[in-house]
Write a structure and sequence with these properties.
Peroxisomal Thiolase, Chain A, domain 1; 2 domains; 14 strands; homodimer; 451 residues; transferase (chains A, B); nine-stranded mixed sheet; three-stranded mixed sheet; 18% strand; 33% helix; alpha/beta
Chain lengths: 451, 451
């Protein structure tokens, strides 16, 4: 069988719940300075679901919209995979629930992909490999609802979904060798099976993210340097970066880390002295210290600053306004870049894009190339419109009540609510029996009318 | 990139807990006739775990043994995926826990694959595609611990794990086009997140299995007929069958169903009158009735009977003695076939093997070909030795006690117990905090010394 060429991203659709919390208002409600959540986390807003939406309904909505937008005939889909860590059943996959959209074509491979925020990337890799070998079109879904039980972590919640159409003759293709890194670490995990909240060791998780970034970036440069064309390769050699974004400050730290890594990698070579000499004082800092050193962080941020606005900011628009959507986060970042790249989507043509992703711990880094105009791909995203239409409120549904949300309240109506996905919703147990606990913020926020 | 040839199964290792329940003894304890569990379900024994084993430890054990047996250098592995529905964490994958075996090579892609009993098959497909495109070796793990809360369903529990080495120049390769079938059905699911037990609609689940089989077999014959060589193609055209085995009676029903399907598919053709004429009385039976009709079942079983012993029985040895191991079940069946094929493993050389699999609802059917001697692949399985060494007991650990199991009691010692997989086990919450509920049989079985 001959391999199919130019397999990549042919379409992308995003969805996030319309309601959100303003970080400033949340800080006020929490009795902390606003800067703790804005400058401190780098976040602006955080999307959240009401009781009428769940992981199934937001996944159905985003897939339905992708199919309409891309005019997909369900019969052309051969693989469908879902990355998520919002688990409402220990056996039945979200993928199988999505099959209600494909009753005329049940011959679709795939299932759910699970490892914290990484599942969507595994789904994408599987879909790309499958298309290259078997032909046809694949759909990749990444969707999550991120809730935290600890008050300190609550501002890093969020919600969102993305659906990606993968197939041949795509305007965005993978290039070079993708690299992966995986460790057995307990930085963020969810051992309490009857609740939605993770156990998080925040400081350790930051280190795990950066350690994965170190490993991926070093290996990536070694394996793909010849494709980048610059000598020496540094972070400045790449046009755009997309990072998994648990909160924007993490993205800032990750980007500045690359400049430290460039110096470490190159300082023994002929290029050494010229590479970021202001970072020379940190050349011999023990590795473990580099993860926590504030002086290094400040120095690296200063080196990275001239590049951040053009190379990173375009991808941060959605994640800073929807919060952490776990598996969907990196693809919300990608969608943002496609719509917001300096000079408009047309400017991306022919430019190289580096993707980076780190989590739980599975991580990967790869490069994508825009090889054809992406106007059709981005025209229906309307990210700025959707951000403008976000409905900011401090009202969060109270745990003990029956679902009070009027469907009209979920404006920019999703295509599905969890009470409409019959027979799925009827067959699923109700949320309390289901072990799905109340929204995380219920106890700390005033109940008020939609604002 | 050129596609890598003859990618397939290069090694296979199985593991199951040493302790088991005899179906006859269990029936006696349950106060039902022994035949209900033996002839009725087609089962002989059922393996179960003690408190010292869990999904992580049995997965670690089977991978460690595969690596030793196949003399695998961890540095050669590029992808590792786990299919399971035994979820003890909603975020962290079993795959990431297995990375403790690969500390010298953390550059390994993959994560967990979830959809009831199907995840292992998705993992295998991913690994095959990955190897064909990217080279290197992959490991596929399928492992589960099947427990049922309802007394009636308990005899269909079980436990087991399998690890498969996938790579180039393999003695067993895939041939032809694999087919898939997926539906949004609620026949078996696990919405009670704080317990291990599924919600099962047994009669409906049987129909979903058969409906998936119908769809896969019909499509498979249409797409791969030219490879089989027989005209017309019927179930008799294939040498061996491997079915997902929730219990052996299901396998018997599935096999006999193929003969009914052959007649349905061919009766309008020139071959029609000659194809299983004893099934003619059911030609016009409404489809829904065919799933439940006892007379059809009896007639189809009679047609299938001459073929069952040679084509199916060789693959049923392990599943009838370990019970349902969910994702691992079909690969325990495969391992059984490899060791038990009539004439020994050498007899499989060049013969075609059809695999079939149905579940939750994702299903797939594909064909494998043994293209080189598999002696090295099968030599370390020792399935018969392991069955002989099963320790039958009615003793099941009592829920309320601290883990009382001496490691020496887990004979044919696993490489890992859950108290040894430090730091994983320490980091995980203890079983009760963890939401992992006590063993299913604790309440119905007498506590007695190991038998």
């Amino acid at each position: 069988m001959s391999e199919i060429q130019n397999v990549g991203i042919r379409g992308i659709e995003i969805y996030f719940p319309h309601r959100c919390l303003e970080m400033v208002a949340l800080a006020e409600a929490d009795g902390v300075p606003a800067g703790k959540y804005t400058a401190g986390l780098g976040q602006t807003r955080m999307a959240f679901c009401g009781d009428r939406e769940d992981i199934i309904s937001i996944s159905l909505t985003v897939v339905k919209r992708l199919m309409e937008k891309c005019n997909i005939d369900p019969k052309d889909i051969g693989r469908l995979e879902v990355g998520t860590e919002t688990i409402i059943d220990h056996s039945k996959s979200v993928k199988s629930s999505l099959m209600q959209l494909f009753t005329e074509n049940p011959f679709i491979e795939g299932c759910d992909q699970i490892n914290a925020c990484y599942g969507g990337t595994n789904a994408l890799f599987n879909a790309l490999d499958w298309c290259r070998l078997h032909g046809g079109l694949a759909i990749v879904v990444a969707a999550d609802i991120a809730l935290y039980g600890e008050k300190n972590a609550r501002p890093t919640g969020g919600a969102g979904a993305v659906a990606i159409l993968v197939g041949p003759n795509a305007p965005i293709v993978m290039e070079g060798t993708r690299v992966a890194f995986s460790e057995n670490v307990y930085d963020f995990y969810k051992p309490h099976l009857s609740e939605e909240y993770p156990v998080v060791d925040g400081h350790f998780s930051l280190q795990c993210y950066l350690r994965s970034l170190d490993a991926c970036y070093t290996r990536f440069c070694a394996q793909n340097g010849h494709l980048v064309g610059a000598s020496p390769i540094t972070a400045a050699s790449f046009d755009y970066f997309v990072f998994h974004s648990p909160y924007n400050k993490m993205v800032q730290k990750a980007f500045s880390r690359l400049f430290y890594l460039d110096r470490q990698r190159l300082r023994g070579t002929e290029h050494g002295p010229a590479v970021h000499p202001t970072l020379a004082p940190f050349d011999d800092m023990p590795l473990q210290e580099t993860f926590t050193s504030k002086t290094l962080q400040e120095a690296a941020t200063a080196v990275a600053a001239p590049f951040y606005a053009t190379k990173v900011t375009p991808s941060t628009r959605l994640p800073t306004h929807t919060g952490n959507s776990y598996t969907a986060s990196i693809y919300h970042s990608l969608a943002s870049l496609l719509e917001n790249a300096v000079g408009g989507p047309a400017a991306l043509l022919g430019k190289r894009i580096v993707f980076s992703y780190g989590s739980g711990s599975c991580a990967a880094m790869w490069m994508m190339r825009v090889r054809a105009p992406i106007d059709r791909l981005t025209s229906g995203l309307h990210i700025e419109d959707q951000i403008r239409a976000q409905q900011c409120t401090l009202r969060h549904l109270h745990a003990a009540t029956q679902p009070p949300t009027r469907l009209s309240f979920i404006s920019r109506r999703p295509n599905f609510s969890n009470s409409e996905t019959s027979p799925s919703a009827e067959k699923r147990l109700n949320r309390s029996e289901n072990g799905v606990t109340p929204p995380a913020l219920a106890s700390c926020l005033p109940i008020a009318p939609p604002g």
